[in-house]
Amino acid sequence: MIIVNSSFGQNNVIIYEQENELKSIGNNIFYLEDTTSQFIDIPSSILSKKDSFIKNEGDVLNFANTQSAFWFRFEIQKEVDKDIYLEIHNPMLDSLVLFEKVGEKLKQVGISGAAFPLSFRKIKYTLPNFLLPINKGEKRQFYLYTKSNFPTQTSLSIGTSKSLFENQHPYDIAIGIYIGIMLVMGLYNLFLSTSTKSILYLYYVVYVFGMGLLYSMFKGYYFEFLWSSMPIFNFYIPVVSSTAIIFMLLFARTFLELKNNNPILDKIFYVLVGLSVISVILGLIGIYDISAKIGQLTVVLIAIYLLGTSIYLLIKGYKPARFFLVAWFAYLIGLIVFILQLNAVIPNTWFTDNSVLFGSAIEVVLLSFALADRINVYKKQKEEAQKEALEKTKENEKLVVEQNKVLAIKVKEATEELSISNEELNSTNEELNAMLETVQKQKDTIEERSAEIESINEEIKATNEELNSTNEELYSTVETVKQQNKLIADANRSITDSLRYAQTIQDAILPFEERMDSHLKDYFTFYRPKDIVSGDFYWLTDLKGKVYLAVADCTGHGVPGAFMSMIGSAALDALVDRNELEAPDDILAELHLTIQKALKQENSTNDDGMDVGLCVLEYLTNGRCKILFSGAKRPLYYYKKSTQELIEIRGTRQSIGGYSKKERRDFEVNELILEEGDCFYLSSDGYADQNDKNDLKFGSHKLKQLIHDVAHLPMKEQGNIIKQKFDQHKGKEAQRDDIAIIGVRIS
User: Fold this and answer.
1) Contact 620, 626 (CB under 8 A)
2) CB neighbours of 708 closer than 8 A, spacing ≥ 6?
3) 142-151 per-position pLDDT tens digit
């Protein structure tokens, strides 16, 4: 269909009479909108619609986003000797076909546009152009057909090749400066990304390079220099734009910490990413016009969204948002100006045509300042945290040293008392044995002389007196033994009291029940030391919304094991609460180095250390929980309610601490998602290693079967059954090792 306007004015003849002049001809052009592109099949038929052409007002022809084709008619009279060219000031117009009116027909002069190789152009540079076949003194009428998937907005000029290049030169310098800024910012932050290993910088680098590629494509430079023979790439501008915006959103979300600062704004982020993804998909499958419209709308929404988000977070006191606010304000102004002129809302000028470049360059530089400011903030926070951690570490070391001194003194005193009591007891036993031998000899003598009783009555009386005297001495000796036993009992009571005091100290390092309840909700613990104080311990803390849970089995038990458990618990507190290590494998690796340093194992053969199972719990939506597990010779068992299956994840086959000439491996990390109702378990090896009256161990296989059999029951009932089974297996046998088991249900 043709849009008809009966108000057709007289043609304005364009006279070109000054060499090297670039003459704008927009206000001397008549245009006709062809909504069905029907006249391109028989171009000469457009001549029958000459009365339907409309006179253009102004230098720019701007028809915004449209699927219509357009015919431009103009008449040129040449008064110079040099060749003159028609230049179209929009490198992204798809199809441009120039016709010359010869008699009552149209003769094709040439083809150009973003849909055709650069070789179709008479002058091989960024803007489409045609050589006008006019001799000096002649007047010719031309028809230009144009159709595009992108906004049909352009201006037309005529001039010599020299004037075309001279006019283009300032634009070349501007885009060169812009590309230079983008390359410098991109490479600088790529270096920072490599050195800091932060995904934040990588998002920013991809966005910067994407924007540099986008505007260079939009201005036709990449088509001229990189893919001049493959014009299909020109149609992927919406794809490049939306891809760059996706990485901008990822950068903004990470930089502004939207997930923690405002969950509602974080949800809007996913909506905007979804719109950008739709634009990318439509562009890749060839629906370029809709892809471009969605992309333009999304860019405006994102600019407003990021501007509003920055203002909100700045009001809330989040200082890193200040540079972000200024950057996006500058870009938003340039973007809105550009889109308004692209859609014919405001006039087309040199400034409006390049406003988005100015805004983008300012935005990129300011965002680099924002990243630098963020580095300074993080550096200051890290220094404060390190200072605080150092002070707490010194306090802990001082406390441990003092506690060690107290325990060492008490153990030494108790040992000395016990040694003295043992020596006295041994001496008393020797005297008693000697007396018993004497009594035995006297008894033998009495028996030998029994036959002579009648003849040696006096001797019998004397012997009886001697025997009575010996019995009195024996009674006195027995009383002495009783006194020595009392001394030994008192010494044992003193040692036991010291161990009870040490138990109180050790219990203080275990997580309080209120803290366990607040983070785990449904769980049980089975914790039973072998000798009052334990070499096993369990540990719990939280960081950034995640829960850290560990069960550790230290070398030895009793007092030595208790010392190791206190060192291990204090080290875990320092690594997570103060140093903010988050990955379980990194925590175990640093724990190993801390234990080595604390026990001075670098240049010794000391093998003391611990086996550890460590979990990081992150509660997700719909009752699910993501678990990251790393183990140092300890496994994780978890029970899937849906399949009634118990699964074991083995830990890495190396302990924490100790000296070894072999090269250590990295601790493995295992990730699993547990649903609501699923359970997981951490344990030391004390339960499985316990023997019965026949010296048979309970065993890991039997323990796993027991857990599987009770996993469907409430957690407290599970813990009671596990304790009962242990006592039944042990019977009257002594406990062999310390025991620690924790079971947790996801709820």
Assistant:
1) yes
2) 639, 646
3) 999 998 877 7
Rounded distance, CA 603 to CA 292, Å? 67
Cα torsion 449, 450, 452, 453 to 10°: value is 120
383's torsion region: left (phi>0), alpha (psi -120 to 50) or beta? alpha
Please say whether the beta carbons of 76 and 13 come within 8 A.
yes
| Beta carbons of 69 and 34 less than 8 angstroms apart | yes
Helix pair angle (558-573, 457-509), 10° resolution: 10
pTM above 0.70, yes or no: no
Q: Please state, in angstroms and rounded to a whole number, the distance separating the CA atoms of residues 492 and 362.
A: 79
How many Cβ atoms from other residues are within 10 Å of residue 143's Cβ? 24
* H/E stretch holding 150: none
Sign of the CA dihedral running 372, 374, 378, 381? positive
Top mean-pLDDT range of 207-216, 351-360, 368-377: 207-216
> Which residues lie below 8 Å from residue 705, measured CB to CB, with a gap of 6+?
none
Q: What is the mean pLDDT of residues 524-542?
A: 92
SS3 109: strand
- What's the mean pLDDT in 696-714? 95
| Cβ 553 vs Cβ 634: under 8 Å | yes
Decide if pLDDT at 5 tops 60: no
Buried residues in 619-631 as b, exposed as e (16+ CB within 10 A): eeeeeebebbbbb
Is the C-alpha dihedral spanning 617, 620, 625, 628 positive or negative? negative
Residue 594 structure tokens: 């801390």
Q: What is the number of alpha carbons within 13 Å of residue 346 lying toward its C-beta?
A: 13
Q: What share of the chain is helix, strand, coil (3-state, %, to 5)?
A: 55, 20, 25
Asked if 717 and 515 touch (Cβ cutoff 8 Å), the reply is: no
Q: What DSSP letter does each residue of 400-419 carry, written as one string?
A: HHHHHHHHHHHHHHHHHHHH
* β-pair type (13-16, 69-78): parallel
One-character DSSP codes across 41-95: TSGGGGGGGGGG-EE--SSEEE--S---EEEEEEEEEE-SSS--EEEES-TT-SE
Q: How far apart are CA 36 and CA 18, in angstroms?
A: 39
Higher pLDDT, 17 or 648: 648
| H or E segment and range at residue 551 | strand 546-554
* Cβ neighbour number for residue 497 with a 10 Å cutoff: 12
Please enumerate in sequence order all residues whose Cβ is within 8 A of that of 606, keeping only pairs 6 or more positions apart, or say none: 599, 600, 658, 659
Strand order in 523-528's β-sheet? Answer: 523-528, 739-745, 679-683, 636-640, 645-649
Q: Mean pLDDT, to the nearest integer, of 529-556?
A: 92
Cα–Cα distances in angstroms (integers) from residue 349 to residues 89, 107, 342, in the given order: 12, 33, 11
The tens digit of pLDDT for each residue in 27-51 reads 889 999 888 877 888 888 888 888 8
Beta carbons of 649 and 629 less than 8 angstroms apart: yes
Q: 473 pLDDT exceeds 70?
A: no
**What pLDDT, in 10s, does the model give residues 630-671?**
999 999 999 999 999 999 999 999 999 987 777 888 999 999
Q: Cα(76)–Cα(89) distance, rounded to whole angstroms?
A: 18
Residues in contact with 551: Cβ distance below 8 Å, sequence separation at least 6, in sequence order: 536, 537, 538, 539, 612, 613, 634, 682, 683, 684, 740, 741, 742
Name the H helices within 257-287.
258-261, 263-284
CA–CA distance, 157 with 166 (Å, rounded to integer): 13
Which ranges of 449-557 would DSSP assign to H, the alpha helix? 457-509, 513-520
Distance between CA atoms of residues 636 and 128, nearest Å: 67
Distance (Å, whole) CA 15 – CA 139: 9
